[in-house]
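[scheduler] slot 2 assigned
[scheduler] job type: sequence-to-structure, two independent chains
[scheduler] chain ordering preserved from manifest
[runner] begin chain α
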Amino acid sequence: MIGGGGANEQGFIGPFARIIKTKVQSLFASQEMGMMMADSNQKDLSLLAEMVESGKMKPVIDRTYKLAEVPEAIGYLEQGHARGKVVIVVD
């Protein structure tokens, strides 16, 4: 089991509530809870940039919204349905 953050987790305590909840849930599941923290560095970021530029890696865009539709975009994110990036288009 791997816990992650979400749009509704705000402030200092928000992310920790999910960690505690997942840890408790893992007591009743066959999976173990694992934690991972991203540690980006210049070499990795350069490699990612090269992969995007060459087309080997493409971002997944779930939906696009116009700037005037930002409230709808935020609502969509808060519902937890997004399966890729939600993009705001500024004309």
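[runner] end chain α
[runner] begin chain β
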Amino acid sequence: MDEGLVLARLVFGLLMAAHGAQKLFGWFGGHGLAGTAGFLEMLGFRPGRVFATTAALTELASGLLVALGLLGPVGPALMLSVMIVAAVSVHLKNGLFSMSNGIELPLLYGAAAAALALTGPGRYSLDALLGLESLWTPAVVWTALALGIVGGVANLAIRRPAHTVAAA
């Protein structure tokens, strides 16, 4: 089981960190902060640069925490939060599958994040190495996940999408 957990943590964590690096640094074909800020402004997240920086840092940090198995449910909760925002603000209108830019990808990341938080990082993690595993009681894990959900919903609540005006 521990080998499976480290594989899942590395794949989901490093890919999420790469998403953050795309937004933050423009790496891996990303648009960097300027391009991400403009996109987020179009989605109603203003000021775009603040939201772009926050999203990029959250994706980068959550991915690294998950990949390393550090700080238990914190990384998964952060990942869940940004995936809720992405799913609702970008992908939901396009249906389920990623071929049509649907919610499939953020749904998979969010589900994996929740599953990893609920399962724990396993023996091959920094939490195990540092003896932190006992801190992550079920109550702490559920609270972290709930805060991640609240954070995602709060981000969506403060969004101010542009209203389209029908041509006369």
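[runner] end chain β
[qc] chain β: The longest helix spans residues 2-25.
[scheduler] slot 2 released
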